[in-house]
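debug: dumping io for the single-chain case to check the tokenizer round-trip. Nothing else runs in this session.
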Amino acid sequence: MIAFNASAQDNNIPPESKAKKKDRVRLDRGPAIYITTSTGINNNTGMVGFNFELPVNERVTIDAGPGFGTWHYKVYAGAKYYLKAAQRGFAFGAGFTYAKGEHRMRHLETSIYGNTTESIYRQNPRTNVLFAAYKYWTLGKQYNRLYAQFGWSVPLSGGDKITQISGPRMSDNSIRSRGSTAPGGPILAIGVSFGVH
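debug: decoded output
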């Protein structure tokens, strides 16, 4: 009789209430994976890119992805630690980026003689380590998120950022100007991630 009564009470719970209870449990756990698109200055995956973020548990994730930026193709791999469960609120992360650079760039540059001539140079590959803080907000459906990222990207690559291939020697100002777009420095980025259960 007791078992029958418990079963009958369970059947009387409205389907909507069951769904809400189930959704709350799933939100606590988080989705199986996030697919993220983002942009910004020194963004993990460049000016335009995407990455996949895989929860290891409710607070730790690993992520990686490709993109494109001022230093041509860029790839990223890293990890994050969230202060709240279900990958929300504030998070702290670290990772590595590799920007391929462009093999052959052609621009009008000021030479060491003061005149403007065509110069051809190469953007050398750059490897960086980054440290960042993130703030996540729930966006629309329970698995989707909007976020902002702040941090610093530290170059690990030595040597020149660019190598001139041909043309009169570029002035120091021209070299600094062309090298200033290499990855490294402050990180300011925004993005949207879509959770897939």
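debug: round-trip ok. The chain has a mean pLDDT of 86.
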